[in-house]
Automatic annotation (TrEMBL):
This is Corrinoid adenosyltransferase. Belongs to the Cob(I)alamin adenosyltransferase family. The keyword Signal does not apply. Pathway: Cofactor biosynthesis; adenosylcobalamin biosynthesis; adenosylcobalamin from cob(II)yrinate a,c-diamide: step 2/7. Residues 14-179 form the Cobalamin adenosyltransferase-like domain. GO terms for biological process: cobalamin biosynthetic process. NCBIfam families: PduO_Nterm. It holds the Pfam family Cob_adeno_trans.
Amino acid sequence: MADLGEFEPAQPALYTGKGDSGRTTFGRHGDVAKTDVRVAAYEACDEANAAVSLAMAAGGLPIEVTSTLASVQNDLFDLVADLSVPLDDPEPAPARIRESHLARLERAVDHFAQQAADLSGFVLPGGTVAAALLYQARGVVRRAERAVWVAIDLHPTSVDPLTARYLNRLSSLMFVLARGANAEHGDVMWVPEASARAMAQEEVGDDRPETGVGGA
């Protein structure tokens, strides 16, 4: 086995050790604790992007859907770039979430919602693999939205509410896309207290007296 010391990195090291103290340089926010809510919001959005990527990579989605999700992934990079620069920073940010981002998502939600059956109740996050992963991505996006709202509440002059509103629209898009992925086989519907009813029926069956056939 070769001694790792023999190898020289071909590019700058991806590790510096600067974060070993629990602090990090967060864009133009400067030196902050890794537990800072703005860092948590950034990382939650990064995780949401990875969840979208997983849903795309699993396959089984129409080209129109994967194209839409690819655009969403780029938007999410715009969003984390937005989070990395204080809202009141005098210098322009590399990217900002704008009303046009939300309008595009709303058009996509309306478009894909037309392709799904009418909703007659609450649906469970399941069905096809593609649908299950889209439902999972929706949950991660909703968690990211909550993290961003926490950052907004604590740093109202630093974090733009448009970023949270974008994530709110994105969770709606993930929902309609997941339903679309189940269109062929139908939604998996929630049946209130289904397991309790099944157990009650079993108990009734167990209480029935046994009957035998007697012979002379």
